[in-house]
Specification:
Elements: H1 6-15, E1 25-28, E2 31-34, E3 37-40, E4 48-51, H2 52-57, H3 61-71, H4 73-82, H5 109-116, H6 125-136, E5 141-142, E6 149-151, E7 158-161, E8 166-168, H7 174-190, E9 204-211, E10 219-228, E11 235-245, H8 253-269
Antiparallel strand pairs: 1-4, 2-3, 5-8, 6-7, 9-10, 10-11
Helix pairs in contact: 1-3, 1-7, 3-5
């Protein structure tokens, strides 16, 4: 979940006033030391001087470690719980897992640092979609469902209706959510998600790459979580590709392309209004 999980850390840091995306700067030299652990950036040699908006655009691991450090262990963990991680969503599917988080009692500086960019923890795709939806919809966490309604064939009367169920309100403020959307739109406009651009729509999103064990195999999990339109999100798509062979962690293009096609088709099918801003 490395990469796309950074949306949660970003949301928490913005909501707590721990970062100014435009004025705060970070120098990425390629790695950061946390206690005795060296945490590397995916880009050899690092990204150099960045604003924190560029940290998001570039998916810079050391920069997100700093955001996690600014939040601190307890506050970061609190947001993980608020966004619904570590518990089942209650979706209408059998066999749902609650995922795996570090116990708070065992989260030292290194565990806090790796959690901040999504390494060492395991969340389910539906948890990821539900959490990111809260981050971009104004701050409300909803219970997800698969089937909206079921109607009787002959009479067309509704026999099952799943209404919206709010799990938690004000996970982040509406103002913070607006900033999150803006930052994720910048990822598509200027950063690692450029291939998700859709004409006449503002698209936001976040790429993700995780190297699989054993590292010697050179296999990765690549992902992209994208949504549109940015100003009023109607569709969110999360694509994960397992066991992809790549020489570079930066190649998340296939996941982005798949997500783009799903977004394009969904926006058209749902007749979603085009973005007013180009």
């Amino acid at each position: 979940m490395v990469g796309t999980f950074k949306i949660i850390t970003l949301s928490a840091a913005i909501n707590e006033g721990k970062v100014n995306l435009f004025e705060d700067h970070y120098y990425d030299g390629g790695s950061i030391m946390v206690e005795n652990a060296r945490i590397k950036c995916w880009k050899h040699g690092g990204h150099g001087a960045e604003t924190f908006l560029q940290v998001v655009e570039n998916s810079c691991n050391p920069g997100f470690v700093v955001l996690g450090q600014r939040l601190g262990t307890n506050l970061l963990y609190d947001y993980l719980i608020k966004f619904g991680f570590g518990t089942k969503t209650g979706i209408d599917l059998n066999g749902e897992s609650k995922g795996i988080l570090f116990p708070l009692s065992k989260m030292g500086p290194v565990e806090t640092a790796t959690t901040a960019f999504g390494q060492g923890i395991s969340v389910t795709p539906i948890q990821q979609v539900t959490g990111v939806s809260a981050a971009i919809n104004g701050g409300t966490l909803y219970k997800p469902y698969i089937v909206k309604d079921i109607s009787e064939g002959e009479t067309n009367s509704v026999v099952l209706l799943n209404k919206k169920q709010v799990v938690r309100e004000n996970v982040i403020s509406s103002e913070s959510s607006k900033l999150v959307r803006m930052a994720l739109e910048s990822v598509v406009s200027n950063g690692t998600g450029r291939n998700a651009f859709i004409e006449n729509y503002l698209v936001g999103g976040k790429t993700g790459t995780a190297q699989k064990i054993p590292r010697s195999a050179g296999t990765y999990i690549v992902s992209f979580c994208g949504f549109a339109p940015v100003e009023n999100p109607q569709v969110l798509v999360y694509v994960v590709i397992d066991e992809i062979q790549r020489d570079s962690q930066t190649n998340t293009g296939l996941a982005v392309e798949i997500a783009k096609k799903v977004l394009e088709g969904s926006l058209k099918e749902l007749n979603v209004a085009k973005s007013s801003k180009k």
